[in-house]
Amino acid sequence: MATGIDRGSSAPWPYPRLVAHRCGGTLAPENTSAGFDACVRYGYRMVEFDAKLSADNVLFLLHDDTLDRTTNGHGPAAAHTWPELVALDAGAWRGAEFVGTRLPTLADAAERCARDGIAANIEIKPCPGREVITGTLVAQGALALWQGRTPPLLSSFSFDALAAARDAAPSLPRGMLFEQVPADWLRIVSELDCVSLHASHRYLSEPLVAQIRASGLRVLAYTVNDPTRARLLAQWGVDMICTDRIDLLT
Ligand code: G3P
Ligand code: MG
């Protein structure tokens, strides 16, 4: 049983119970303004999105390392400058009604959050080899862009990116992302001074959630699309559910 720290219990947690995965889940092209539109439509108050760096160090939203799946561009995102990226279509792959949707910058996302009163979980999703600079610039950017508003929750699967974010903006809350929670999770979250632990719901159990929460951390479970499963996780004490089905989980 992990005990001995009390990191998150006293840390502010001004977030709702539900967060829309990749802005609007499966109802819109992921990580775009159309996702924010869907969020507003379904009354969601928080979005998760993936942030990375262009070749010329502009922070923008994209999940994959490459452009091919969700835009009409090709190859590694890190090889393209922002003027090249913003010219791409990031909506057509999801349906004709989304043709012309552009990739948003982190600043665009901050503006939408402010306009619609939506909180953010910014997942730092560095392109390979760019972990530290992406963590640093996302944290600095988030600090400046969200000034005076609910602080965005920063998360990452990359230890190095989250460590860089901690060093660049210690005041911003951090959550370590795992798929399956490793045995040494407490050491990792302690080093990063996290307020939350984020894990795939598939590998969570009631005792594990209890153990994590007993350490003072909040728990986010992703990606939960079945309302019955979401209710069970909430009963176990999971603090936040990240979902693609913002139309089903309300
Ligand atoms: O933050 C939860 C979730 O977004 C992590 O997985 O691959 O969808 O970014 P992924
Ligand atoms: Mg993500």
Named at the architecture level, the CATH assignment is Alpha-Beta Barrel
Give the oligomer, counting copies of the same chain as homo and different chains as hetero: single chain
* CATH class designation: Alpha Beta
The secondary-structure class comes to: alpha/beta
| Arithmetic mean of pLDDT | 96
By CATH, the topology is: TIM Barrel
The ordered H/E elements are: EHEEHHEHEHEHEHEHE
The radius of gyration is 17 Å
Q: Total strand count, please?
A: 9
CATH superfamily annotation: Phosphatidylinositol (PI) phosphodiesterase
Helix content: 25-40%
Q: How many structural domains can be distinguished in the coordinates?
A: 1
Query: What hetero molecules are in the model?
Result: SN-glycerol-3-phosphate, magnesium ion
Number of helices: 8
Separation, N- and C-terminal Cα atoms: 34 Å
Largest sheet properties: 9 strands, mixed
GO molecular function: glycerophosphodiester phosphodiesterase activity
Domain GP-PDE: 16-250
Enzyme class: hydrolase
EC number: 3.1.4.46
How does this structure look, described?
This protein is of the alpha/beta class. It has a single domain, classed as TIM Barrel. The chain is built from eight helices and nine strands. Strands 1-9-8-7-6-5-4-2-3 form a nine-stranded mixed beta sheet. The longest helix has 15 residues, at 131-145. The chain is globular and about 50 Å long. Mean pLDDT is 96; it is low at 1-8. It binds SN-glycerol-3-phosphate and magnesium ion. SN-glycerol-3-phosphate (G3P) binds next to strand 2. SN-glycerol-3-phosphate is lined by residues 21, 48, 50, 63, 123, 155, 177, 198, 222, 242. Residues 16-250 form the GP-PDE domain.
